[in-house]
Amino acid sequence: MKNQLDIHKTLKIFQTIIKHGSKIDNKHRLNGVFADSDFDGYTIVLTDEKVTLTVFFHNKYQIDSPNKLAEQEFFQKLDAIHSQTFDA
């Protein structure tokens, strides 16, 4: 999965969650995925109840998950958010 991550698409998903998600404490939530960033915005985090995807500066990233099935389900959620349309 590491070589297949589209960083540009991931950043767009992050922005979609920030723009259209519900704010809960310092995070935003949309369709079961939380979006958060560090104080300067150079590191972003997308997470659900099982998987955490951290995107660092210079497009490096780390995926923490208990198994491949959880990763697949997580990326399906991200794809659903990416293909979702919102009223302007």
Average pLDDT confidence is 92
Low-confidence stretches: none
CATH architecture field: 2-Layer Sandwich
What structural category do the secondary elements indicate? alpha+beta
Helical stretch count? Answer: 2
Task: Report helical residue fraction.
Answer: 25-40%
Q: What's the CATH topology name? A: TATA-Binding Protein
- Global morphology: globular
The CATH class is Alpha Beta
The portion of residues forming beta strands comes to 25-35%
Would you give an account of this structure?
The protein is α+β, with helices and mostly antiparallel strands. The protein has a single domain (2-80), classed as TATA-Binding Protein (2-Layer Sandwich). The protein has two helices and six strands, in the order H-E-E-E-E-E-E-H. The mean pLDDT is 92.
Task: Provide key terms for this protein.
88 residues; alpha+beta; TATA-Binding Protein; six-stranded antiparallel sheet; 6 strands; 27% strand
How would you summarize the topology of this molecule?
Elements: H1 7-20, E1 22-24, E2 27-30, E3 33-37, E4 44-47, E5 52-55, E6 61-64, H2 68-83
Antiparallel strand pairs: 1-2, 2-3, 3-4, 4-5, 5-6
Helix pairs in contact: 1-2
